[in-house]
Design brief:
The protein is α/β, with parallel strands linked by helices. The chain is built from 12 helices and 9 strands.
Length: about 290
């Protein structure tokens, strides 16, 4: 791809900061400007050389940008899109890193107006439970998948630029329809986060919570690791994708009822078959993911 002369990252945390660092490491970007709500985080991003300058929601920041990445919680997308719509240049490509896509696309149609054809919806399926500029690192996207959900009228040049940028970060890029993306991610990302949060909340609200936590070990820690993720981000994701998430919660509830019936009747054979099948499926998934 042609080198990105100027990149603007709105939201210089784990996702946006790692994108900037990866492109810098690949020599694929000239100058990175960061925009964010918290001055403290932006100052830290400057200290860590994630960004080269602090920007603002003004034409000086956005008008000459080649690419702008919106790496904010999906609940902030409307405000950010509305703010940048009159600021971006005639050639500025805009992309996002939101974990839901139908709602983000609907917002883009309403807010970006003349810039809609240069908007490429995206979702890097990568991350950790940490947040903020200090959590960013250049290798976050290596070997990870990024899903793009372009619109019918997306400019080919814009799509090519975003696809190439993610590939320079080391990611594998694929495309899905927005609705399919949201259904898939509800099952394998959004539901697990809800379950982790709910389990920790259940234990924390128990009368003997202190005792329960004192006996919690590796299994509890591993299962609930993602409950350390950013609460605002996951609140917004769950609400934005609630239709698909509610469907997955209903399916999971049915699965728990099936397990409950096995336990009630003391059905060792059924439990063993379920556990063996699940372990085998997980082993195959991990093998294929290598």
């Amino acid at each position: 791809m042609a080198r990105i002369g100027k990149l603007v990252v709105v939201g210089v945390g784990l996702i946006g900061g790692s994108f900037a660092l990866a492109l810098k490491e690949a020599g694929a970007v000239g100058r990175v400007t960061g925009v964010g709500r918290g001055g403290r985080n932006i100052r830290r991003a400057l200290e860590l050389k994630i960004i080269d300058a602090a920007g603002a929601f003004d034409r000086a920041t956005f008008a000459d940008a080649d690419l702008a990445l919106l790496a904010v919680p999906v609940g902030q997308m409307r405000v950010v899109m509305r703010a940048i719509a009159p600021l971006i240049g005639a050639k500025t490509v805009v992309t996002d890193a939101g974990s839901t896509k139908e709602d983000v696309i609907a917002l883009a149609r309403r807010e970006l107006k003349g810039g809609l054809a240069r908007f490429v919806p995206g979702h890097p399926i990568a991350g950790t439970e940490k947040s903020g500029a200090e959590s960013a690192f250049a290798g976050l996207y290596r070997g990870r998948r990024v899903v793009l959900t372009p619109l019918a009228g997306t400019e080919p040049r814009a799509l090519a630029l975003v696809r190439s940028a993610w590939r320079r970060c080391g990611a594998s890029v694929s495309e899905l329809q927005a609705r399919e993306h949201d259904r898939v991610l509800a099952a394998v990302s959004h539901l697990p986060h809800v379950l982790a949060y709910a389990l920790v909340d259940q234990v924390a609200r128990a009368k003997n919570a202190k005792q329960l936590f004192s006996f919690a070990a590796g299994g509890f820690r591993d299962f609930t690791r993602i409950a350390a993720s950013h609460p605002e981000m996951w609140r917004d994701i769950c609400l934005a994708n609630r239709r698909a998430l509610l469907a997955e919660l209903a399916r999971y509830g049915g699965e728990l009822q099936r397990v409950r019936k096995m336990l009630e009747r003391g059905d060792a054979r059924a439990l063993h078959a379920l556990f063996s099948g699940a372990r085998g499926a997980r082993d195959r998934w991990l093998k294929d993911a290598q």
